[in-house]
Each structure stands twice: as C-alpha cells, then as structure tokens.
Amino acid sequence: MSDDKYWQDVKLRDPYIFKKAEDFFGETDHASGLRQPAKVSYEPGDQLGVDGKTNPATSHGRIFRFNDGTLILIQFMRPRVWRIRFDPNATAGSDYTDYNSRTIIEDTLSKLIAVLDAVEGVNWAVELVEDPQYYILQSVIDPKGRDRKVDVQLWIRRDPFQITAVRVLSSLQPAEKIPELQVLNTSNVQQLALQTANGGASAIIWKTKPRGLAYRDNATILAVEKSITADFIGFGEQGGKNLFKKKTYLNYFNFDNMRYQNVYGQGPLDDREPLYHSEPYFLEVDSLPGYKSQIATFIDNYSQICIDLGMTDQTAVRIATRFNAFHGIFVAGDSIQQVIQQYTSVVGKPKLKPRYVLGYHQGCYGYDTEELVLDCIKRYREANFPIDGMHIDVDMQDDYRTFTIDTREGHFPNPQAMFGKLRELGIKCSTNITPYISNVPSESYKTLNEGLANNYFLVDKRDIDPSAPNAEHQRYVEYGTGSTYFTAPIRDKPDYFVKDDYNFSEVFNSGKPFHGGVYYGWGNGHPGHYPNLNNAAVREWWGKQYQYLYESGLDFVWQDMTSPCIAEQFGDMKSLPFRLLLDSDGWSGDPNSAEKKKAIEIWSLYSYNLHKATYHGLNKIHELSPALKWRENRRNFIIGRGSYAGSHRFAGLWTGDNSSTWEFLKISVAQVLALGLSGVTISGADVGGFEFIENEHDYPDPELIIRWTVAYSLLPWFRNHYTRYRDWIDGPHKGDMRKDGKWFQEPYAYQLHYEQHKDQFQGRDGEIYRSVLKTCRYFIRLRYSLMQLLYDAMFENMLTGLPIARAMVITDELDRSLFAKDNQDYTRSQYMVRNDLLVAPALKKDRNDRHKVYLPFPDEWFPMNLRPDEPLGVALLPKVNGGSRLRYNCLISDNDEQVPFTCAIYIREGAIIPKIEVRDYVPDPSLTKQPPNPITLHVYPGKDNEYDMYLDDGISRDSAPSHNYVPETSAGKGYGAARDLCEGLVDPKAESKFCHVKVSQETTRVAEDSKVRVNRKVTIRAPWNGYQGSLEELIDNNYTIVFWHEADVSLQSVAVTSDKNLTHTTDEKARATTVTVPIQQANSTAGVTVHLWFDDV
After folding, report:
1. Rounded distance, CA 872 to CA 936, Å?
2. Cα–Cα distance between 641 and 656 in angstroms, integer?
3. Sheet holding 556-559, edge to edge
4. Which terminus in the chain has less CB density within 10 A, N or C?
C-alpha cells in the first residue's frame, strides 16, 4: 500500500467526517455499541436545577430517565408544538437548560412562550398525568377557566418506551358547494334545513416507533412511524424530481456543490445531494385522509443531519443527528397554512424587505469594467425592460480583496460616479461579499490589517486525530461527480498565478491565523484568512467593513461562498478542515460556549452567523459616517447563497451554482415552493443557469432562457445570473483568457446575436431567437404590472409566515387529489401567487402546444385576461371547472398575439387582483421622483372573497408594522395567528407608517318582481391608515374598480349604486364595468361600498 493510500484510509476511518446518509444508517444498524433504551421513568428530582429549585426547562415539559441512566426532555413550545431533546452526555436533569439555539427567535423557552402568548392572546399550561403504563403530557388551553380545552396529548409509554401524540381532529368540509336558493324567504329556508353533526374525533397524529430512540458515539437516531397514506413535502432546497417524496435518503450538510452532482454524480434530480443550504424541515401530509391534520418536523442541529425516508423500513422515517445533542421540533396543525404560521412563530419571520427586491435583477461573473455594467443597463432600457438590480461579482474587487473596489483606469475608476449614474436610472447595486480576507500583504488593506492586529481571524488549532498526528499525515476529503478523492495540504496548493509559498507544517495546529484561500479557476484567486464569525465582537467588526462600499453607492449585499467555501487544497469538502476548532456560540447563554468545537460539529453555524453579522451591520451602517446618515431609515437587503434554517430572518436565499440545463429548470420551481413551506420569503435559482454546459458553451438554448424567464416571472427572487467569458484587459496576461464562460445570457443579447447571424437561424430556429426578447420583456413587464400583488404577499409574510409563491396544497387544501401520484407533475411545477393567481409554466423543451395544466377543485378558473400595457385587459374567456386537467397551447412564437399565452396563467373565481402601470423601476424616495402610479382593482365574478393591500413607500423601516398595529388579515385567521405585535418581534424603527386597505366582494341574489337580480357588493376600507404624507403622490387620487362580466351577463341590465357619488362606465368590448373611487373616501375606517347589479340568467 502506498503511503498516500494509507493516510487516505486513515482519513476515511476518522469518525469526524461527512458520511452519506445510506452509509451512516447502514453502518449504524450493524455496529456494535448502538444503544436503544427500553424503559423510561419519571423522577421528581430530575426536574430540579443545580440550585434545588424547579428547572425552568420543565415549566412546559418534563425530564424522563431511561433505564440506561440517560435523560430525555420532552416539552411543549406552543400548545401544538413540542420538542424532544436528548443528550447522551446529560447525567443530571440540570444539564438541560432553558436556553434555545440561535435558530429560535428568543434566547430561552420561557421568554419565547411569554412573548408568543402575548402575540397570540393564548393562556395555556402543560399538565402531567401518571398512569401505570403511561405518562401523559398534555397542553391545555385556559387550564383553570370555563373554556378549558385539552389540545395535544403526548402519551409516553413506560415499557417499551414510545411517544404517541393525540389530539381531536375535525373532518374536512366537503369540497363541493351545495346548490343555493335563488330567492330566500323564511319558510323555504326552514323547510330545507339539514341536520348536521360535528366530525370531531380523537386520533393519533404522530408517534415514534417502540424503542424509537437510539444513540451511538456522537450520533442520535429517532425513528417515527410513517403512515402508508402519507406523503412528505418541504426539505428546503433539496428539490429532487418531485415536491412530494415517499422514499429517499437526504443529507443536510452545507456544501459548495456546483451543478448539484458532486457526491452522487447523478445531478439535480437526485434528492440525496447535500446542497448549499440546510433547511431540515418537512411536513407529513395526508396521513389521516378526510381529517384536518398535518404534521411538520424540524431538526435543530448545526452538524450533519441524515434522513432515511422509508428506505430501510417503509413504515418508518428515521432522523439522525451525527453530532451534538438531538433537538427535534414537531408542529401539529389543521392545515399546512396553520403549520407554517406556527413554525415561523418559533423560528421567526423576516422583517419587511425593500420593494425593489421584487423587481428584475441581472448578475454576471464577468462584468469586470464600469463600461460593461453601464452598457448592460443601457441595453435593457433601450429594449424597454424594467429592471431594478445589478449584481457585480468579485470582478469589481482590487485583486480579490473583499470590501474593496479596483479603481484602476479601465476597471472601476470612479465607483461613486458609476453608482450615481445607475441610481439615476433606478438601479440598485450589490456586489459579491465572501467571508474571505486576502492575506497578500497590503498597507492599504484595512480589513486584513485590522483583523490581524485584533486577532479577529480563525486560528489553526485542531482536535488532532491520534491516528494522524502530524502535518504530513493530513488529508482532506473531497467529492467530485460521484467520486471521492483527497488533497494533501503538505504538498497540494491551488494553481494561482502568484504562487502561494506558505509552509503548511508551520501553520498546522500552531494557533496562527488559519491559512485558506479562494480559487476561481484559470489561476485566479489568492490565499487568505477567515473572520471568526462565531464571536460576537468579530461579527460587530465585520458589519462595519461595509462602510466604504456603501459610501461609494452600494445598496444591498450579495453574500457568497458562505460555508465558507475554500479551495480544496485548504480544507475538507471545499470548506474548513473538519477538525479545525471553532468558537461554539450556537446556544444563547450556553455555559459551555467558551469550549471549542470541531468545525464539523457546528458546520452550518458559521454561515448563519455570517448573514447575521452582515444584517446587523447594515442596520447600523448609518452610524459610521455622515455620508451614510441618510440610510438610517432604509430597509436593507442581503441575498445569500446558503446557510441554515432561521437565516431567512436576515437574508433572502438563492439556491447556488446551477447550470444551463433543462433538469435545473425542472427543479427550480419546486425548490422555491419547498422553501416557502418553511417560511422562506425570498428565494430562487439563477435564471438561465449560472454555469455553461459543453454542448451549449457560448450561450444557453434560447428556448431554455424563455421558459426559465417566463416560469420565474412571478416567483419572489428573479435574477438572471451567469458566468461570462473574459480575457485579461491589461497586465502581463493581456489578451489571454482570464476565465472561461458564456458569451451572453441577457435576453436582449439574443436579438443582437440573431440580427448579426440571421443566415444561421432559419425557420423554427429563427422564430425562437426572435421570440426571446419580446417574450421575456412581456413577462417581466407583466411582473411589474402585478408588483402590488407581489408586495402585498411579501408584507403579509411578515405577519403570517406564508410565502409569496405558494404550493397549491397551501391554498387548496380541500382538493385531496393534489396529493395523488398522478398529479405530481403539476404540484412541482405550478404555483399560486398569494391565493388567487395560478401560474403553470412549461418546464420542458418542445411539444408545448399541448402543455398539461391542472386547476384545483372545487373553484372555477378564468384564463388570464390582464395585459401589462393595457389599462383594462381583454374580455373574459369561458371559465374552466376546478379539477380539470387540460391541454394548453403555450408554444413559443414571435407572433404578438401568442406571446401572452407562452405561460398558462389562471385567475380564481372571485379573485381581487391589484394592477399598476409598468414603470422602468420600483419607486424609491431617494431616486428620481416618478409620477403617481394609480391602482386598478380587478374584481372577478364568483365566490365571495377579500383582499388585503398594503401601501407605503416601499423602502422605509418606519413604515413596517409595529406593536401599535393590530393585524387584520384574512390569511392570518385561525390557530397560531398574531393578534398583537410585541415590540421584540418587530423592527425597532417600525412605526406602522403604512395604509392597510381591505377589499372584499360579496355576491347575493335578490328577487325583484318577476326576475332575479344579482348584486356584487365590493367594499374598500382602511382598517389602518398610519401613512405619513400624501398617498396621492404614490397612487394618484382614485382607485379604479373593474368588475369583469362573464359572457352570459346582459350588459344592458348592469347598474351601479353606492353610498358615495361615484362615476362608472361599461366597456362592451372588454365586457367590464369600471368604477372610479376617490382614495380619500376609500382609505378610511368606513370606506366605500359599491353595488353592481345585473339580471340573473
């Protein structure tokens, strides 16, 4: 055996390495030393702290003792949220404390319960009932009052140990509405009255396997019963082939997994690949068909998490944490919506983000000069595209020095002037910020020099593997396209243009700053150090490093390489060495926080703290200089590449380095929907794909660009982002290739390319190229016309936790066919924008003249009739019954009449959709003032409905809701809903300076003489109006209500009445009646009511 092979084998035997989930479970199942407690008992002494008083960790739970002496803590966090904590090293009840992990919004469970009780207006307690066979922990609402109600019971069997959750379930209401009387009178209503019965029943909603907890070494496994009818959704960005999963392994371990193929080699359709972000959260749905019951599971652990979803045992879900104590949080609810609301009440909801985040963005690794950046925006504007964001990569840095700008002539010589020009055009800019500080000596590089002077960098101290004690023994394990390989830091170094001559032996375990580095390929990059972001003082220092960039004109941050990502010669799996010792502040108030932990034990905590440090730094950046004082009241934004659950409180998420393939497009919608189930507001993939593929090296397939742009046109995060071919523009390598990449990916560039090479693109190929610009432009403009709808959904997310883009199972819980296997093509590709706009994009190449669409039951649906640049729209086409599967011609065409149909979009009956005029960019008080943008409220016939709209300036922190605002949202009703906003949960600068407008429609029928008249009553009122200033400057003087009519309505019979003197008109061609409503009347507590009457047929 070669010496190299020997040390590689030593590395693979090290327990502190990443293991594939199937390997971990396989080894554990057959390993000696696996302990599986059989019995559990309750002892009052275990409930006490070190001071002899009741341990606050048991205020809403109890500590139980296993027959092998280990202890388990079972506690309620909310009446329908329970947590299981198991630490095999705990020997006394006092080893369990009241403190939460950083993921939870409050430092202690006691504080969390107190705050959320105040928010939700809930009075509850936990009771313990003892039985010879069971201990029963139960959450009780109003425990000593007249309305006492037992909510959830946890039946803990003593022998064999097993936990069973029970609660009373209600039956799902029938999906289809019964016929309604056309004319109501007392006698016929009484005669037709049906006797009804409540469908409530006690049921088991969740349970572990008997002796379902096992542990060995540092790992803990919990085995939970898996219902034969259940499906599983969520799992964060681990998209895979389907939104629903039945059998698979999953690995949660942040990894710079370019093209999603490095561990298993199968590509993006493989559920098992560990990706950039860890969101170990999933829902078990449809386990009790016919009843209102959904269950979510969240594993709160910063190390590797492995899931065996029915693979070893099809009746079990096994959840494993490789290191540290086990913390499992379980959430029960009547509906998926309710589960999301409760889960996000515990892990938090984001603060209100700037409205421009919802605009269209362009990013490129390769915009390496001011000229390229400005030219891109110029061409977008010339092509009549709205655009709000420009993302400039590390190309802008001075020789890969984070927080700097290359101000040499020909690069970015005057960044303030450049950012100023862009702001005049409405463009907000970000740049790529990695947690890496180049250690190439420079007197002017303040961040490096301060970090060294103050010991702010990670140091090279390791928990040495006794089998490999010396520097020359060290090997780092890497994965690439399904294969495992190793690097030896004693000899292997990145192929930098400027050689890295450091001596690994001198740095290894020395206490000197850890020596890592970034490598971007083709000789690009440098070695460097990494800030110790698990230290609060370093986090504060990190937040101040943005000063120069923001004084230059930067508006938001692109947080990249977050793991941190490191050249493979410097660490394991392109990140830190697994045994490098890090500060461990993962627990608030943790008495052992001073102890160092191996990097692999708290793997995702570093990236979590990176986002946290940037977030708090940006919110204080106005304090750093007079030039930044104007930013004091501005909302900030971070778009990050990967972190851990809870980081959505600080940043949006893009799903890492994909490539320009149809497979990546296929999973990209499902990824957003899955992340939305855990309350992640802003998420999305790089539209068009970041990396090139060899057979389409120069630019992506134009059809792929169209389909991806169209599919993402109404998803929350919408950024075209790619890597571009560039030559060196100066220096000793001038004229040589600096980096490989594509020629272009911007939609306008396809038209330019076509015009220059028309002879190469004939027939259908030519039509596709000609369609790129006009189709992408149309759907981007459509997005901007529906910006108020998107913003209202984002505002609502802050109150309810519900995502902007929603899986149909959130909005249409009565349609149980959505759980069926033969509907999975629809559930992973279709999405709802808020509640009433369904988007069904084609995600496959070709044959899209017969694209299949599914419309949820039982509602009826109208084909999309709004157009971005038409004030009204087109007449309604016949509605389609819910439950229908239909074929839709969404063929790509350069024919203007076909362009709107490139994507199937449907509007739910009774919908209320706000629409505005398309502008080049989202307005901002700090930018060139735009004329007022009036809001048109499109109201569709059908079921009763209401809509919540939120009006503010889109950027000020003080416009966000504060504790003086009482939420009144239709989406927020039900269990776990906020009835108040406590000061600690809102932006400290929030002052509720917004206007909440509620629009509702109610349809009734009234008998008049020999005919029946239909009355569509629309009410607009403002239950809250704290807006400071003139709303007329934002939205003009009037709302326009558009009542859309179906084809069978006699327009001659239409009449409009109101409690106010309003003007109206009916457009016969569009079959719509418009009513003009002054906003001063509508935006009041009483509001305005409009009645539209017509003859029933």
Report:
1. 9
2. 6
3. 683-684, 652-654, 638-640, 556-559, 428-433, 389-392, 361-365, 719-723, 686-687
4. N
Phi, psi of 453 (to 5 degrees): -65, -30
User: 380 and 362 in contact (C-beta within 8 Å)?
Assistant: yes
Spatial contact of 1040 and 937, defined as CB atoms under 8 Å apart: yes
794: region left, alpha or beta (phi > 0 left; psi from -120 to 50 alpha)? alpha
Give the span between the Cα atoms of 883 and 815, in whole angstroms: 8
HSE, CB side, 13 Å, CA atoms: give it for residue 632: 8
Compute the half-sphere exposure of residue 211: CA atoms within 13 Å on the CB side of its CA. Answer: 12
Per DSSP, the residues of 23-56 read HHHHHHHT-TT-B----EEE-GGGGB-TTSSBPG
pLDDT digits (tens, 9 = 90+) for 872-927: 999 999 999 999 999 999 999 999 999 999 999 999 999 999 999 999 999 999 98
Residues 520 and 387 sit within 8 Å (Cβ to Cβ)? no
For residue 160, is the peptide bond before it cis, meaning its omega torsion is within 30 degrees of 0?
yes
pLDDT at 538: 97
pLDDT recorded at residue 1065: 97
Could you tell me if 883 and 809 are in contact, meaning their C-beta atoms sit under 8 angstroms apart? Answer: no
Give me the amino acid identity at 324: N
| Residue from 236, 306, 309, 244 nearest 276 by CA | 236
Residue 1079, token pair as written in the block: 């906003």
3-state secondary structure of 680: coil
Residue 550 has φ and ψ, to the nearest 5°, of -75, -35
Q: How far apart are CA 421 and CA 415, in angstroms?
A: 10
**Closest to 167 in 3D by CA, of 197, 212, 137:** 137
Give kind and range of the element (H or E) at residue 329: strand 326-333
Instruction: Label each residue of 1074-1095 as H, E or C.
Output: EEEEEHHHHCCCCCEEEEEEEE
Residue 191 has which token pair? Answer: 């005669």
**Residue linked to tokens 């327990």:** 15
Least confident of 98-107, 430-439, 960-969: 960-969
Contacts 24+ apart (CB under 8 A), 68-76: 68/35, 68/37, 70/37, 70/215, 71/46, 71/95, 71/96, 72/40, 72/213, 74/137, 74/154, 74/156, 74/163, 75/109, 75/126, 76/126, 76/137, 76/139, 76/152
Q: Are 351 and 357 in contact (CB under 8 A)?
A: no
Q: Which residues contact 931 (CB under 8 A, 6 or more apart)?
A: none
pLDDT at position 183 over 70: no
pLDDT at position 1097 is 83
Residue range 66-115, pLDDT digits in tens: 999 999 999 999 999 999 999 999 999 999 999 999 999 999 999 999 99
From residue 976, alpha-carbon distances to 78, 333, 739, 866, 950 in Å are: 9, 9, 52, 35, 22
> For residues 796 and 834, what is the distance between their CA atoms, to the nearest angstrom?
9
Task: Give the Cα separation of 894 and 775 in Å (integer).
Answer: 8
Q: Which residue in 257, 262, 745, 728 sits closest to 524, CA to CA?
A: 728
Residue-level pLDDT at 885? 96
Is pLDDT of 387 > 70? yes
Which range (166-175, 620-629, 962-971) has the least confidence? Answer: 962-971
d(CA 901, CA 390): 29
pLDDT band (50, 70, 90) for residue 977: low
- Band the pLDDT of 982: cuts 50, 70, 90: low
How many Å apart are CA 456 and CA 448, to the nearest integer?
Answer: 9
pLDDT tens digit sequence for 743-766:
999 999 999 999 999 999 999 999
Please give the Cα distance from 32 to 840 (Å, whole number).
Answer: 52
In whole angstroms, what separates CA 92 from the centre of its chain?
Answer: 39
